Amino acid sequence: MIEAYLEKNVHLLPQTNQLRAMHTIVRDRNASREDFVFYTERINRLLVEAGLDLLPFEPHDVTTPVGATYHGLKPAGRLVGVPVIRAGESMEAGLRAVVPAARIGKILIQRDKVTKLPKLYYANLPDDIASRHVLLLDPMLATGGTANAAIQVLLDHGVREENIVFVTFITVPEGVEAVCSRFPLVRIVTSAIEERLSEDAFMLPGIGDFGDRFFGTDD
């Protein structure tokens, strides 16, 4: 089923030996927090670069130091990064490293303890976000509940569906299906597609709780 979404909706980073080696380090349950942060940040930057490449560009010529003309490109629209608090904030540095002037919004969505459904608790977005392209940042796309809720928040603020690129570190076929079937114009960029979800909704083989491991709040 996921094959139908690859390339059209889902852009998987090239599975190079270098990328797999970094994944090997961060997936190791015995990895130090320092190694986890260092290597996930390296991969996050690759993800952000791939996400930016999906945004529109327009022709832009410049004169080179030897007086010749280079027929180049420049971004055709304005950008805003929107991390989903808290884990998504781990990807913010990767965006700032590539686009230092990028505007940043925030969304906080958590699962309601009673209904078990994702609930919006906080959103702080630029007033002109409807006219911008959005990189939505959240490192884990599992069931798709949080991702779909966050995308709906953006749509409710006037963002066009086709202007949203969801950047996630790791996902599973179930999450891809949940997002792409509901929002077919949203593009997803990821560094890994896992085998499946466990009965407890853990990704397999997985990476653990990304936010806890990145921010040092795991046991």
Automatic annotation (TrEMBL):
Its cofactor is Mg(2+). It holds the Pfam family UPRTase. Residues 14-217 form the Phosphoribosyltransferase domain. InterPro entries: PRTase-like, PRTase_dom. GO terms for molecular function: GTP binding; uracil phosphoribosyltransferase activity. The keyword Nucleotide-binding applies. Its EC number is 2.4.2.9. Keywords: Allosteric enzyme, Glycosyltransferase, GTP-binding, Nucleotide-binding, Transferase. Pathway: Pyrimidine metabolism; UMP biosynthesis via salvage pathway; UMP from uracil: step 1/1. The keyword Transferase applies. It is an enzyme of class 2 (transferase). NCBIfam families: PRK00129.1. Belongs to the UPRTase family. This is uracil phosphoribosyltransferase. The lineage of its organism: Bacteria, Bacillati, Actinomycetota, Actinomycetes, Pseudonocardiales.
